[in-house]
Amino acid sequence: EAIAPEAVAKIRDFDPQNLSNTAWAFAKLQIEEKELMATLSEHTVRRIHECSCRDLASTSWAFARIHMPSAELLAAMSKVVPEHLFEFEAKGLSNTAWAFATLGSKDVPLMSALAGQ
After folding, report:
1. Which of 11, 59, 65, 97 has its CA 20 to 30 A from that of 103?
2. Would you say 115 and 97 are in contact if contact means Cβ atoms under 8 Å apart?
3. What is the reported pLDDT for 112?
4. Tens digits of per-residue pLDDT, 61-112?
5. End-to-end CA distance of the chain, in Å?
6. DSSP 3-state helix, strand, coil percentages of the chain (rounded to 5)?
7. Cα separation of 87 and 104, whole Å?
């Protein structure tokens, strides 16, 4: 619990991998820190074009794992993921598809593109 406020305070120093790793860690432990996740979402959206496929897959998985949708994050990812489909490994594709489905995404073109890979 003490880590979340510290992460929020230092989040401006996080690179995309730090953002995704932090989201993944809290989700893996099923810790629902709304302020932290909202801040992670905001900063990930700002740096979405710097994210690797692994960052995108891990972050989407994390938000779905703790059922914390972020419309802005999903919209940003919906634009970037198709540009990098050929770079994803099978696990990243399946995790991303699962995450979007779990979060109730209605992005048919994205889901079709993920399924086609």
Report:
1. 11
2. yes
3. 86
4. 999 999 999 999 999 999 999 999 999 999 999 999 999 999 998 888 888 8
5. 39
6. 80, 0, 20
7. 24
Question: What size, in residues, is the chain?
Answer: 117
DSSP string, 75-108: HHHHHHGGGGGGG--HHHHHHHHHHHHHTT---H
Task: Give the predicted TM-score (pTM) of the model.
Answer: 0.91
Neighbours of 80 (CB within 10 A): 14
At CA 101, angle to CA 48 and CA 53, rounded to 5?
Answer: 30
Helix, strand or coil for residue 69? coil
Rounded CA-CA distance 26/66 in Å is 9
**pLDDT of the residue at 110:** 87
Tokens, residue 85 = 């489909």
Backbone angles phi, psi at 52, to 5 degrees: -80, 170
Q: What is the DSSP letter of 66?
A: T
